[in-house]
C-alpha cells in the first residue's frame, strides 16, 4: 500500500473546515505511516471573503504539538502549498524563510489574477485559449520562483473548464506542457500525482497519464502522491489505484520528503 499522503489540508487553509486532529486520526485509521500536512499559502489570492494565508509561527507551533501527540501512531511532516504568481516571488521567499518545512508544493491556483474556478476567467476565451494560457502562466511562475519540491496538480484547470476533460488531451498542449516538464526537471523539481482528479470525476488523476509518461521519458524521477484532501474522508482517495497508474507511466518508485530531502519508496 501507499504509506504516505503528501497533499492535504486542515482548517489553516481557508477552504477547509477540518481539524488537524480529524485528518490525522483518519490517516491513522487508514494505516498510513506518514502524513504531510500542506496548508494553503496564497498571498494576493483575490478570492472573495477568504484569506488564503495563515500565521506561520502558529502553524509551526501546532505541528510540533501534533507530532508529539501522535508520535507513537504516525509521523507528521510539516508541508505547505504555495500559490504561485510571478509578482509575489519575494513574498514566497519570506514565507519559506519564516519557518521550517519538510516539503513544499508549488501550485498555480490563479492565472492572470483570476481562479479558473470562476466563470469570468473563461469570458472572451475559447476553452483551448484559456487552458493554453494557464499552462503558459505556470511556466512564467516557475521562472519567477522555483524554491519548491514538486509542482502540484499541473492540469488543475481541467477541473473547471467549460467541458471539463471531454475535450482535453496532452497532445493539444504538448508544446507548452513539454516545456513545463523540461523546466521542472532542469530545476530538479518533481511532479505530484494528485488523486483529486479521480474524486472530481475527470477519469484520471492529475496530471493526465500522457503527461506522467512524458515526464518519465524526459528523465523525471521525483513524484509524490497526494489526495488534496480537505475532509477526512478524502484522505488517501483512490490510493489503491496509484501503483498501477505509476507503473503504467514507467515508475518503479514514488517519493516522499523530509527536511526538503527526497527519498524513494519502491512500489
Report on the structure:
With 267 residues, this protein is α/β, with parallel strands linked by helices. The chain has 8 helices and 9 strands. The chain has a 7-stranded parallel beta sheet with strand order 1-2-3-4-5-6-7, covered by helices on one side. α7 crosses α8 (242-249). It is globular, with a radius of gyration of 17 Å. It starts with a strand and ends with a strand.
Low-confidence stretches: none
Count of extended strands: 9
Number of helices: 8
The average pLDDT value, as a whole number, equals 97
Name the helicity range: 25-40%
Gyration radius from CA atoms, angstroms? 17 Å
Shape: globular
Largest sheet: 7 strands, parallel
N-C termini distance: 8 Å
Give short descriptive properties of this protein.
two-stranded antiparallel ribbon; 267 residues; globular; single chain; alpha/beta
Summarize this, please?
The protein has 267 residues and is of the alpha/beta class. It has eight helices and nine strands.
Topology:
Layout: E1 4-5, H1 20-30, E2 34-41, H2 56-69, E3 75-83, H3 89-97, E4 103-107, H4 127-144, E5 150-151, H5 174-186, E6 190-194, H6 196-199, H7 209-217, E7 223-226, H8 242-249, E8 253-258, E9 261-266
Parallel strand pairs: 1-2, 2-3, 3-4, 4-5, 5-6, 6-7
Antiparallel strand pairs: 8-9
Helix pairs in contact: 4-5, 7-8
Amino acid at each position: 500500500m501507499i504509506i504516505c499522503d503528501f497533499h492535504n489540508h486542515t482548517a489553516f487553509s481557508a477552504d477547509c473546515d477540518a481539524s488537524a486532529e480529524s485528518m490525522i486520526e483518519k490517516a491513522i485509521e487508514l494505516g498510513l505511516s506518514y502524513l504531510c500536512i500542506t496548508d494553503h499559502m496564497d498571498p494576493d489570492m483575490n478570492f472573495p471573503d477568504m484569506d488564503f494565508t495563515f500565521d506561520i509561527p502558529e502553524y509551526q507551533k501546532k505541528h510540533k504539538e501534533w507530532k508529539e501527540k501522535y508520535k507513537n501512531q504516525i509521523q507528521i511532516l510539516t508541508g505547505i502549498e504555495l500559490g504561485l504568481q510571478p509578482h509575489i516571488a519575494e513574498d514566497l521567499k519570506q514565507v519559506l524563510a519564516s519557518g521550517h518545512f519538510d516539503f513544499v508544493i508549488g501550485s498555480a491556483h490563479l492565472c492572470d489574477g483570476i481562479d479558473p474556478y470562476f466563470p469570468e476567467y473563461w469570458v472572451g476565451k475559447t476553452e483551448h485559449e484559456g487552458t493554453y494560457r494557464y499552462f503558459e502562466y505556470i511556466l512564467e511562475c516557475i521562472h519567477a520562483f522555483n524554491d519548491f519540491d514538486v509542482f502540484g496538480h499541473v492540469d488543475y484547470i481541467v477541473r473547471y473548464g467549460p467541458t471539463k476533460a471531454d475535450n482535453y488531451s496532452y497532445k493539444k498542449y504538448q508544446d507548452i506542457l513539454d516545456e513545463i516538464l523540461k523546466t521542472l526537471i532542469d530545476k530538479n523539481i518533481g511532479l505530484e500525482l494528485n488523486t483529486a482528479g479521480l474524486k472530481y470525476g475527470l477519469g484520471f488523476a492529475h496530471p493526465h497519464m500522457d503527461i506522467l509518461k512524458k515526464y518519465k521519458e524526459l528523465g523525471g524521477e521525483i513524484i509524490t502522491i497526494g489526495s488534496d484532501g480537505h475532509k477526512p474522508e478524502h484522505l488517501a482517495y483512490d490510493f489503491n489505484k496509484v501503483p498501477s497508474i505509476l507503473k503504467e507511466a514507467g515508475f518503479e518508485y514514488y517519493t516522499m520528503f523530509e527536511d526538503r530531502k527526497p527519498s524513494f519508496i519502491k512500489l
